[in-house]
Design brief:
Shape: globular
Number of strands: 6
Structural class: mainly beta
Length: 80
């Protein structure tokens, strides 16, 4: 997912709001109560100024668009 860091994205939320911004890659470790007995890594892509991830991946188990996102368009344009 880190290869999408800095790419411009246009996101439409379920209620119709359009967000136009650049993706930011944010890796983190899961808290023990969320990961169980295994090492837990959560990767997310966020848009600056929006405090909810757009795409998440837990333990490299596939990428998932989060609830509330109706449409997501990731462009080739990259921030400077």
């Amino acid at each position: 997912m880190s290869m999408l860091d800095g790419h411009r994205a246009i996101i439409q939320l379920n209620e119709g709001t359009i967000i136009d911004g650049y993706l930011r890659y944010v890796p983190s470790k899961l808290r023990k109560e969320l990961r169980g007995a295994t090492e837990g890594i959560c990767e997310s892509l966020m848009v600056e100024g929006v405090y909810q991830p757009v795409i998440i991946s837990v333990n490299a188990g596939g990428k998932h668009v989060v609830d509330g996102v109706k449409a997501l368009n990731i462009l080739k344009e990259v921030s400077a």
